[in-house]
């Protein structure tokens, strides 16, 4: 990943992350197929809701005939981490027009957020509308197409996890967190390592007490507060 | 190719919810200047959220009890991390991770 911030560079930078999308997207399509969702519903979920892990939860809740209100609340909770990510990312685009900000916000995901945070370490804290849009668009299209292909293949693939593709997403986050760790010069290595360990410990204890998504939010917020205190002490 | 009324409402409702949680912060940050403490807080969001997302796949939740490790994911994470340290390439981390997991599955290691 270099310092260039053009649309083309954006496409190139996002390519390593699409493996994660393809694996999970295929898996979602297959799950949706076995849950008797039509192709139209799969497409609607991927292109309109566009919520990754929340789509799995919505599918299972639809299958259980949960009330609409419960489905809406779950979707909000699972996706509420996006509020933190968007607020964080939006600081890099304040100089752009409101319209461009809204366009970027519409398609931000965990992965393109993490990618952008890695990128700005290489560009002295700058990001561009063209670069971010390229990353967002490629991610959006690959996700949508992968879920539809998964739904079409449906019953044909006996066990998609056999070839290890389900690990692509985890591997991608490991790669992104490692690159973040070694390249964020504002915070430095030792402070970030302390924060990471703190987050892992909090998350470990919280998942016994609450849902995974709540635990993720609690660990994230606690980690940020811990980091702020540690930074003051230095 | 069909869609029930419930499915239509779910797609539209959840669509509005996900777009709002992504877009409103952008509109907010654009209009309002943020206090220093909030900016300080947000500098830690990338590392904390990425760490928590990794933890989500490395730990298995056991409601009411302490979490356990997802052994297969933890084992595959080792070569993936080493690939990251050696190459500093996201693509290599992903490729090595997938291959490691395929090998673990082939020998039925880690469940």
From TrEMBL, chain A:
Signal peptide: none annotated. Its main location: membrane. The chain crosses the membrane at residues 14-32, 39-64, 70-93, 137-157, 163-182, 189-207, 213-230. The keyword Transmembrane helix applies. It is found in: Cell membrane. InterPro entries: Brnchd-chn_aa_trnsp_permease (IPR011606). It is a multi-pass membrane protein. Coiled coil: none annotated. The keyword Transmembrane helix applies. It comes from the Bacteria. Belongs to the AzlC family. PANTHER family: INNER MEMBRANE PROTEIN YGAZ. This is AzlC family ABC transporter permease. It comes from Levilactobacillus fuyuanensis.
UniProtKB/TrEMBL annotation, chain B:
InterPro entries: Brnchd-chn_aa_trnsp_AzlD (IPR008407). Pfam families: AzlD. The keyword Transmembrane helix applies. Keywords: Membrane, Transmembrane, Transmembrane helix. The keyword Membrane applies. The chain crosses the membrane at residues 6-24, 36-59, 90-109. This is AzlD domain-containing protein.
